[in-house]
Design goal:
Length: 162
Amino acid sequence: VQSTGSHHMPHTQLYNGSVVRGMSGPPLNELNLELPLYIGSVPNFTESSRDSGVAFGLIGAIQRLIVNGQSWTGLGMQGSRVGRYQGPPCPASTNPCLNRGICLPSLNTFSCKCADGFYGDQCQLSAAGEKPVRFNGDTFLEYAFNLISGKRQRNRRRTNFE
């Protein structure tokens, strides 16, 4: 949901759907948020206007909140009875990500964060064996080895590893 507007002409857009425009006449010419902004529900329905028609809270998920162009993080930090979302496209009973992959919902689709040793859209491929590796400047390979011998010659050092 995206809500924008100025003075007495707000607009609201759900997902990437059509924009709904509204208008308020005098004396209602501004949006005043001196009270807390509740998302999903309210602690007590007596705090909301009876004219709003709100009788129960949101059943669903909120993935991202943008206020004044800034994305808010840590959405569940100050919530009450907020649980981890379980449902399409990432139901807990049938994880679409294989091999201990973690399903990350993104609107009506998902991506998988694969466990070490696996890759692919659904973590279905094993990275074991003779596979090429890619370095991006932050990655490295570490090998344990035994030093057999090391000789220092003039401006050179020769080291043999096992």
